Amino acid sequence: MGEFDGRVEGHRDGHGFVVPDNGDPAIYLAPQEMRAVLHRDRVRVRIQRMDRKGRPEGRVLEILERRKTPIIGRLLHEGGQWIVAPEDRRYGQDVLIPKNATASAQVGQVVSVELTEPPSLHSQPVGRVAEVLGEIDDAGMEIEIAVRKYEVPHRFTPETLAAAAALPEKLRAVDRKNRVDLTDVALVTIDGEDARDFDDAVYCEPFKRGRGKTAFTGWRLLVAIADVSHYVKPGEPLDNDAYERATSVYFPRRVIPMLPEKLSNGLCSLNPHVERLALVCDMIVGEDGAIDAYQFFPAVINSHARLTYTEVASALANTRGPEAQKRADVLPHLLHLHEVYRALLKQRNKRGAIDFETTETQIVCDDNGRIEKIVPRTRTDAHRLIEEAMLAANVCAAAFIAQADHPSLYRVHEGPTPEKRVALQAYLRALGLGLHISDDPSPGEMQAISQATQGRPDALQISTMLLRSMQQAVYTATNNGHFGLAYDAYTHFTSPIRRYPDLLVHRVIKALLAGKRFHLAPNALTRTPEVRKNARPAVKPAKPLTQEVQVWEGVGAHCSANERRADEASRDVEAWLKCRFMREHLGEEFSGTVSAVAGFGLFVTLDALYVDGLVHITELGGEYYRFDEARQELRGERSGVRYAVGARVRVQVSRVDLDGRKIDFRLVREGESDRLLDKGRPERAERAERAKPASALAELGAVREADRVVKASVRELKTQVAAGDSAKRSRKPAARRPAPRPRARR
């Protein structure tokens, strides 16, 4: 039935899949086939049959490439043997460690293992401890695990560090050559309170051209972006490390930067009251928000203030308040920025750009790196005006490059695939709202549906379905526009400190300004991005690509893949922290909202903690629930009870799996909480029957007694769970761990 080459994707349940290189659907591998391979190996398989779920099932013919990256896990001692249990359960097998290959690691410590013998049908993999990371409870250990688990480069090469150290501490005369002096312009940076690197500075003033009533009026908007390309040259060590990383990776309390600190927080950061090099986008914005003219030029700037979103929002809300008075020198320019923002917003609405309101959260950690609380991020006009200014500069950059017909990287976001469009149409029909999308939907249609359903109980569900119907944005040399923002051409220009595609766009623009062309050299570090299951090309070129454009496509694919890698690593760390946080709340009850529905249960977001967990379908009651894909809901066949996105529920935290990054909830039905409490306090019930409290003080004492009983029950439950976790970690000793037995396919 055909042979295919592809990459193995293991599953924590023992089976796996092979993702073919050509993008065909994934091929199922039974547990016995997974015994001789590991997650992320490259293999050749032959399709043997179709399984009962209609999936092609394969047999491994040849192992083409073993993954050479280290495996991260905890060192255990069982039955006289040392083993490492991989932290990533997709590997499926423990690694045997000879007693002379444990280095200085102790039982229970987190280690990095290099394989010395691969697995086979009859034996487990064997390895040696290459690095001891420390104890699982050490502060920041979750980040150390994630950067290795996802292969995030986190150490600069000696050559890169030497090159960074050799850079000057401040600007030299040669650096100012052929640059516009904007040091007297009141440019300011506006960022979050915890920001350490400042890519962009902005300035705005009224603009008038002509005389009389017909004079053109509007605003002159300057967006100055750090000129990283002046210091990071193609092919040099700094550039090679930046390219390999492709992006900075953000974790709670820590950043893995794309560039060394001397650049990211020093020379290339637009810090206040120091001269810095910048590439400036100078725009004329009309009263209707249209960009009527623009130009790019290199400049020397001096940021007049480092402002935060909070203080700018306060100053704009009350121009006579303390924040406004403190920033009186730049307040007029902030008011002009707010004016141009409102104009740009008109143009955004006219284009029909999609703007779904979602709740973003921020993790606040204590000194030990553990979650202290999770709070929602509040988006103000200060956030929005910076976003609109950056969007305007990005659009001008894309237009400038496209007009010159020069190869570059565009940020492309395509609309729904035919399959997702059909599913969305079916969903909207099932709701019976009279809303629909065409066979060739526009961003305006999506935005109109979102606005028309605001205020409905299922508004969140509808917005979620609209978002899921669209494809993921990617970097590519083929300009297919940006669907979500409703732009014909869009690129990333405004963050060269933390994104490599922006650095490339700067190089292209500077070459064009000099009347030259930028030739992108093939990079040996370019990796073929991992193909997703059932993936299809995100962008289909209209004509065959030239050799030069193919190089750009490869770089775009590399940057897109590394962007996904950074997101996955960040989510993994956040999930670990949230699981650790929720272990302190085992047995407690919370109100929440159903955020997603699947055939196996409900995902619920807790109101107070902003943490997600799963209510498995077996916890919904003693009846059969059918998943309605069109309506995205579970419905009980006997009772008719329905659970859909947006439904309000009350749940109890029943289980936390730190290794699997999973939190399980149990549905609490109406009145059940009271019954559980009454069952746990018979003494109070009996006392209440004998004599009613004679005073408010007696009533308060009864309530406190009830709380004491409940808290004692919760502590007992936590103790039992902790004991279970400890027993699980220690495991029952065995004389020797045999090769894993095949598991029954489910």
Structure description:
The protein has 746 residues and is α+β, with helices and mostly antiparallel strands. Among the domains are: 3-65, OB fold (Dihydrolipoamide Acetyltransferase, E2P); 71-136, OB fold (Dihydrolipoamide Acetyltransferase, E2P); 171-381, no CATH class; 671-731. It is 31% helix and 26% strand. It contains 17 helices and 31 strands. The protein has a 5-stranded antiparallel β-sheet with strand order 3-2-1-4-5. A 5-stranded antiparallel β-sheet has the order 8-7-6-9-10, with helices on one face. Strand 17 (275-286) and strand 18 (291-302) form a beta hairpin. Helix 8 packs across helix 9 (381-403). The two termini are 23 Å apart. The relative contact order is 0.09.
Brief descriptors of the model:
31% helix; OB fold (Dihydrolipoamide Acetyltransferase, E2P); alpha+beta; globular; 26% strand; 746 residues
Proportion of residues in helical segments? 25-40%
Q: Give the overall average pLDDT.
A: 85
Assess the beta-strand content as a share of residues.
25-35%
Radius of gyration, whole Å: 29 Å
**Mind summarizing the main beta sheet?**
5 strands, antiparallel
Note the overall shape: globular
Number of helices: 17
Strand count: 31
Strand order of the largest sheet: 3-2-1-4-5
Low-pLDDT ranges: 528-538, 675-746
* Terminal residue distance: 23 Å
Question: Helix/strand-derived class?
Answer: alpha+beta
